[in-house]
Amino acid sequence: MDILPILSTLRRHKITAFLVIIEIALTCAIVCNAVFIINQRLDRMNMQSGVDEHRLLHIELADIGVTKDQKARMLEDLAALRQIPGVVDVASVNEVPFGRSSSNSGIKLDLKQNQPTLNATLYSGENLRRAFGAQLVAGRDLQSDEFVDFDDVVRAAAAKDMKSLPHAVVITESMAQRMWPGQSALGKQFYLADFPITVVGVVKELVRPSIWDDNARSYSLVLPMREYRGEYVLRTASPQNNERVLAAALAKLKEINPHRVVLKKHSFDDLRYDFFQNDRAMAGLLIGVCVALLVVTSLGIVGLGSFWVAQRRRQIGVRRALGATRRNILNYFQTENFLLATIGIALGMVLAYGINLLLMTHYELPRLPAIYFPVGALLLWTIGQLAVLGPAMRAAAVPPVVATRSV
Amino acid sequence: MFRYYLDLAMRSLMRNKVLTALMVVAIALGIGASMTTLTVLHVLSGDPLPGVSGSLFYPQVDPRDMDGYDASKPLPEQVTWIDGMNLLHARRADRQALMTGGAVPIQPAQSGIEPFYSDARYTTSDFFPMFRVPFLYGHGWNPSDDESRARVVVITRSLNDKLFGGKDSTGQTLRMKDTAFRVIGVLDSWRPNPHFYDVNTGRYSNSEDVFVPLGASRDAHLDHDGSTDCWGTGGGDEEHAETEPCVWLQFWVQLDSPDKVAAYREFLTHYSQEQKALGRFARPVKVGLPGLMEWMDINKVVPGDVRLQTWLAFGFLLVCLVNTIGLMLAKFLRRAGELGVRRALGASKREVFAQLMVESAVIGLAGGLGGLLLAFGGLWLVRRQPSDYASLAHLDPTMLLATFVLAIGATLLAGLLPAWRACQIAPALQLKSQ
After folding, report:
1. CA dist B275 to B82, B228, B268, Å?
2. What is the pLDDT of residue A285?
3. Do B329 and A193 touch (CB under 8 A)?
4. pLDDT tens across A141-151, in order?
5. CA-based, 20 to 30 A from A381: which of A222, A284, A348, B162?
6. Is the CB of residue A30 less than 8 Å away from at least one CB of chain B?
7. pLDDT(A1) > 60
8. A230, A170 in Cβ contact below 8 A?
9. In 10 A of CB A195, how many CB atoms?
10. Is a pLDDT exceeding 80 seen at residue A252?
């Protein structure tokens, strides 16, 4: 196919050609970035939590009046929950992954540091790791003689009484890697609110209740501290039992102490679903806009293509009369579209890169991976070719006899 | 002349229905998407208290120790109990209120309603006059009630409807966490957006249902909600929150003139210096006194996703416009013959141009109408989203007008180039080729 005649034709339709190029470039730039953001959100939604989500239930209760003896009541609750058929494990905890409410603290490797090394979330509750089903990859679990009551810890911290504070801690693998890169964290010491504490175990993953920074999402530690605030986690034998176990657990808790209100009752699957609602909505919206953009662009190509074909009917007739085949005419319009699309895509790539740079500075997005460029180009070439097919076939159908007629 | 042009425009548009439909749909899609996102942005970045917000300020001091000190880092977002009380009692502003959020268990007297938890605000008395909170029945409490830690409560209209069937409930007793409070006021509907006075407890959430004097909330051991930020030995112990080195309260002041703002800033500096001399403050003296809207900006109250969506929608509108320019150009040039005849018959370039612009405006109007329908649909979708601002997404008259201005303005802009191009046609050439 000879490209030169196409170029000279396009030179006579500068504005229209320019508009097609701009439209393709803008579409290419926006779609590349939008798809990138969609993928980011999908990745986020598939984030590993490190806990046995499908088999976990979460219940949070609050007392109506001022209650005494919270610890004894908690033990009674736990004992009753354990008796429910289908319950494998239970724990009274202070926070849960994706639960949004969290307690966090700065961690220092050295007391003299001015700024903390990192900020981690503090999980606590006896038997928490086992109830969550978080996988221990090194060291050991926290032992029951290491556990202290939450109230005692608060009192001891205020009095700077080191002996009554927790001494052992379990941390996540990613936190260990960040603190002591390439080394085993076992036996290492760090400072939590200026009190020393020693790592005795490492879990593979345990995501935070709320995530501000995706890089710090697994900076979690588990303290040997007993909690009795009425927040329980139950692990069931199988996901099919979840609903039945939750209902039974609530009935049991109500029976033990009716003077309280259920604040939360859900499976961890629901917790995850709620946590990523905004990401899901954003991804949905972006998908909608991308589809609309591609539709508008292809309709624009169809419209302009039809116009060009109508305008050049006579010339097409002349070419056909001079011996050009239908295929030649079809190829002409396809090549023309391919040329315009190519220029548009090239411009669009530069623009996509620019938009990505802007997003990186204003929305803390990572750099656009190179793979998006060829894939985006392929997509727009395909759409361009599909859109121009209709007008091009109409052009090919112009009979040679048109050449002999005056308009 | 205008009516004639309008008639010509309608004829021309009806002649090629597919092309016209394509243009109108493209404009409508672009306008619909832009107006949807723009309305959300407009609602979210609005002024929570129009006419009042200009005189509301959020004082900030820094009581933290030197650990982690970095001069470039921002001041604490809240105040400690001690600083809050000191600033409150100094009464240097026209009005001032110290507050925090919480949740209370409500025990209805009627046996038919199960006990439930409600969001609550523990505050001092100036909250109501300072934020111009409207009352349906009764009134707020006095500074003397703050001092005596009176067991009084103000509830919202919706809670009053639920508990007292909408009747005037002032003087009635409301039991919360086993403590009896006397209802002294019922608010009329009030929902400032954003929830500016405490951005940690839901940025676009409803106002709390229960308002209790700050002192009384401490006496009754009502639970605190929201952010607590501690340093040193602070562990966020609820029972001793008055003395813990933690910030957990919001302090707002009303300052009615620029002089008073400058004087208050001066006062905050003096206060910090004094506290430093006393050994309570350790860091170099730095104070903040942002206005309400400035405080919203600092906290990035408008979600980043919403801004991103707005940019995206405008990018989309741009593509739709480029598309329309191309199609209009095609359409106008196709009528070169007709335009040539008009020119030859004596129509000036200016008149032909005007005729084509009227045609663009008609497309713009149709696109605007379509866009409006799509925006209603889009906002309906936004309202079904889970975010706390979802229920606020409604088109107001300003945005309604803006839709048409944007649609017609954008289409006229898009029509400029094709119309100009079409005017350049030499009439003789066109007539010859006929």
Report:
1. 11, 22, 10
2. 87
3. no
4. 999 899 999 88
5. A284
6. yes
7. no
8. no
9. 17
10. yes
The one-letter code for the residue type at A375 is: V
Q: Is ipTM beyond 0.95?
A: no
Q: Rounding to the nearest 10 degrees, give the CA dihedral for residues B302, B307, B313, B318.
A: 130
- pLDDT of the residue at B326: 87
Tokens of A360: 């990186």
Closest C-alpha to A13, from B78, B330, B325, B298: B330
Largest CA distance in chain A: 106
- Please give the average per-residue pLDDT across A80-95, as a whole number: 94
Task: Give the Cβ contact number of residue A78 at 10 Å.
Answer: 17
Sign of CA dihedral B240, B243, B248, B254: positive
Q: Which residue has the higher pLDDT, B158 or A11?
A: B158
SS3 state of residue B205: coil
Residue B316, both tokens: 């989309």
Percent pLDDT > 90 in chain A is 59
B143: distance to nearest CA of chain A, Å? Answer: 28
Measured between beta carbons, the chain A residues lying within 8 angstroms of B117 are: 62, 261, 263
Q: Could B322 and A26 be called an inter-chain contact, meaning their C-beta atoms sit closer than 8 Å?
A: yes
- Average pLDDT of chain A, as a whole number: 90
- Measured between beta carbons, the chain A residues lying within 8 angstroms of B103 are 62
DSSP notation for A300-358: HHHHHHHHHHHHTHHHHHHHHHTT--HHHHHHHHHHHHHHHHHHHHHHHHHHHHHHHHH
Query: What are the residue ranges spanned by the domains of chain B?
Result: 2-45+303-433, 53-298
Please report the pLDDT score of residue B433 as a whole number: 56
Per-residue pLDDT of A335-360, as tens digits, reads: 999 999 999 999 999 999 999 999 99
Query: In the predicted model, what is the mean pLDDT of residues A281-308?
Result: 89
DSSP structure string for B124-187: -TTHHHHTT--EEEE----HHHHHHT--EEEE-HHHHHHHHTTS--TT-EEEETTEEEEEEEEE
Residue B117 pairs in a beta bridge with: B105
Type of residue numbered B64: R
3-class SS of residue A147: coil
At A25, the amino acid letter reads A
Residue stretches of chain B with pLDDT short of 70 = 236, 430-434
Peptide bond between residue B194 and the one before it cis (omega within 30 degrees of 0): yes
On whether the CB atoms of residues B156 and B140 are closer than 8 A, the answer is no
* Interface touch A114/B67, C-beta < 8 Å: yes
Residue A95's pLDDT band, with cuts at 50, 70 and 90, is very high
- The answer, for A162 touching chain B at a CB cutoff of 8 Å, is no
Side chain identity, residue A282: M
**CB of B316 closer than 8 Å to CB of B34:** yes
